Model the fold of this input.
Amino acid sequence: MRTAAVVPAAGRGERLGPGAPKALREVGGVPMLVRSVRTLARARLVDVVVVAAPPADVASVRAMLADHEVPADVCVVAGGATRQESVRLAVAALPADVEAVLVHDAARPLVPVELVDAVAAAVRDGADAVVPVLPVVETIKEVDGSCVVRLTLDRSALRAVQTPQGFRRTVLEEAHAAAVGEDATDDAGLVERLGRPVRVVAGAEEAFKVTRPIDLVLAEALISLRRAR
Done:
């Protein structure tokens, strides 16, 4: 089963503050997108990598990947106005013989290659959809519109979801076709709507998403620790 990884990287990520699109921000002197693509390309079970870049930046993203010696067979296509559209366009650009697809957030630059292969292996073993998860360690409360707590949720049954998420290609395409015009941020959620089971595998602490300025600080610190080893 040939497996592809797609990276929707056309968004700006405004919670990270003004500046370049989030995926192109540097951590440890290297753009987050480059770090993510390098890991995906190194994965033993990934055959193809496709990046959906901002339409105006396709040429510059290709040049940036080349400058950082990312494998030449990584494909860059124009993304869409929403994350969901970017995923759809990237999947449409895949070779016809690709049967499994991983969808990875460029803003998770420190994802371990072992996690990528674990998700891909679960799809190859027959799962329609697979997500890496971590236990929720904080107490979670549901709050109403008046900022009053409605209830405290049982965190023993809760999990925080990471990427890459893995899918049988036909299932992912069906899920996106059923949600045209939406701006879904969780591909597995679209598959759930189809009534298909979504399997979970153990996630990794390093695969956190860089969303806020403090996440950049944490990423920089982890990279420094890796270099010091």
Notes: Residues 2-131+162-228 form a domain with the Spore Coat Polysaccharide Biosynthesis Protein SpsA; Chain A fold (CATH 3.90.550.10). Residues 28 and 220 are 6 Å apart (CA to CA). The mean pLDDT is 93.
